[in-house]
Amino acid sequence: MFYYKTTPTPTNSGCVVEWEFEVRDDDVLVATKFEHTLQGRRRQVEVVETAPTYFLGTCHRCRSIKRFAGYVTGGGWFRFPVETGKPLVGKHNITCSCGGTFQLRRIEGRYNPTKACDGRCMSAKGPQCECSCGGKNHGANWG
Ligand SMILES: [Zn+2]
Ligand SMILES: [Zn+2]
Predict the structure, then answer these.
(1) What is the pTM (predicted TM-score) of this model?
(2) What is the pLDDT of residues 6-42, one digit of tens each?
(3) Residue-wise pLDDT tens digits, 47-67
(4) How many Å apart are CA 72 and CA 16, to the nearest integer?
(5) Could you state, in order of their start, the residue ranges of all structural domains in the chain?
(6) Which CATH fold topology does 2-50 show?
(7) Which of 6, 26, 54, 105 could connect to 127 by a Cys-Cys bridge, CB 3.0–4.6 Å?
(8) Ligand 1: centre distance to CA 100 (Å)
(9) What are the angstrom distances between the C-alpha of 141 and each of 27, 58, 72?
């Protein structure tokens, strides 16, 4: 589905590293790490699969709320904004149409089969979710 490649970057140990990111049809992010040898050969050294997570962002200026998809990997997280098609790495600022900045909170879903998922979940303003959707629909009305 979506595909992105980093530029080859030399590391402290002297070898050149490159990552390829692909979002599969099931929304799982597949990150593949390649190393370039001194002979100019490229070999695959690591493959990491990450399921998507969701964030609720509140604009600090106009207070509008938006939901964003992202991928939490290792220490940081990657976000793949539809607008640019490029991953934003780390705690990146996302700009609102008003010029403000979205403060992101990761949606924490706790699966509770006895509590039906309804409009309260889908229009929630806070990141805490506990209902039958397990966080999947949380804040979905915010787009
Ligand atoms: Zn705003
Ligand atoms: Zn919810």
Answers:
(1) 0.67
(2) 788 888 877 888 888 888 888 788 889 999 887 778 8
(3) 988 887 788 889 999 999 999
(4) 24
(5) 2-50, 53-142
(6) N-terminal domain of TfIIb (2.20.25)
(7) 105
(8) 5
(9) 19, 14, 23
